[in-house]
Amino acid sequence: MPEILVSAMTFGPYAVAYLDGRTMMIPHAAPGDRLEVAVTSKRGGMAFAKIERVLQAGPDRREPPCPFLPQCGGCDWQHLNYPAQLRAKAELIAAGLRRASIEVSAENLIAHAPEEFGYRSRIRLKVGRNGKFGFHRFGTNELVEIDRCLVASPSIRLPHALASALRHLDEIEVVASGEREVIVAMMRKPPSSVEIDRAQRILAQHPWIQGVILKSGRAREAIGDPAVRINVDGLDLEADADLFSQVNHAQNRKLVATVMEMASIERGARVLDIFCGAGNLSLPAARRGAIVSGIDADEVAIAAAAKNAHRLGFADAKFVAGKALDTVQFLIRAKYRPAIAILDPPRTGAADLMEPIVKLRPRAVVYVSCDIATLTRDLRVLIENGYRADRIAAFDFFPNTHHAEIAAHLLLT
């Protein structure tokens, strides 16, 4: 059985080692570990392996505080102490940006989270048979049942009653709303009248449950009050719990403040916010006097953004439901030119939007990303078309995992 010395982390659940000219990818390993491993598969010059024995622990390895690790596939970096997590993320982000010819120092690149645990305002659980729930075992679809989650907000209670009452459940999400919560049930079939009645009874019997949303495809049933309230940039925003929102409120406040600094919004400036959601970045821009146009494909999110803008008195913030590419191409034909374009796309990035954004010619682009690979791919196009990177900032939204949020500010030269 081969012995290896782990050299570094990847932007994923694996650490890297080398053996006989082959790159070895090992989950649950830490830099400096000397390990005995078993190879599980090979792909070209790469091999995947599992730890059989830790011969000597690296300096940053720790015993994961969570009792469900390493079986649970949720927190893939919890076996690293927190300072080591931050260092590894910063180094990986800096290395990724170099592929787009952006040179940044890893030192002080990433803003640490105020709390390593208890930071998630929402958790999504997989549901198995007989109302059992948890997370998938690493690399499989096998359920690891849990009775608590260390990274969840302390106010979140696990949804035993609803998980037991509903059939055809695939996932169940608990979203904190102050001291109460909203539960979102993702179902394989639209809810029956019996299941809706059961959800109503559970809502009545549990005063800490504010609302329940039952979803299956386009079918959606909201019971009670489905909206959660979030303070962003001094604004109290409301959005239904099944809409996307950042899970780490403390870090989101830092992100929004940094994006607003980068954008340097002047009163009356045109701001185009693509993938605007319920207005996490649009409404702070409107608060600074911008004339905001927000785009998102989610009609429910757009309705929430428009409702928040109306309630807050932001008459110059307008929101449109539509596919990002189609809407941006329409704006090009209409000869619309924003001063600032803000993007916060999903993990897959916005490759199809880079050339259209170049045609819009905003003086500044602020791109928020949770994936360094797609971010660097997209930034490369902007840089090749007359933009230069002015500032990069990263935020540890997700301690104990490999994920991070990155904000990139580019200026037209």
Q: Distance between the terminal alpha carbons, to the nearest Å?
A: 56 Å
Q: Do you know the CATH architecture of the largest domain? A: 3-Layer(aba) Sandwich
- In angstroms, what is the radius of gyration? 23 Å
Low-confidence stretches: none
Task: Order the strands across the largest sheet as they lie in space.
Answer: 6-21-22-20-19-16-17-18
Beta-strand percentage? 25-35%
Structural notes for this entry:
This protein has 413 residues and is α/β, with parallel strands linked by helices. It folds into 3 domains: 1-61, Nucleic acid-binding proteins (OB fold (Dihydrolipoamide Acetyltransferase, E2P)), CATH 2.40.50.140; 97-113 and 248-412, Rossmann fold; 122-228, OB fold (Dihydrolipoamide Acetyltransferase, E2P). The chain has 9 helices and 22 strands. The chain has helices spanning 82-98, 160-165, 193-205, 249-263, 282-287, 299-312, 324-333, 354-360, 372-384; strands spanning 3-9, 14-19, 22-27, 34-43, 46-56, 110-111, 122-127, 133-136, 143-145, 169-177, 180-187, 209-216, 219-224, 227-232, 235-240, 270-274, 291-296, 317-321, 340-343, 364-369, 387-395, 405-412. Helix 8 crosses helix 9. The model has no long low-confidence stretch (mean pLDDT 95).
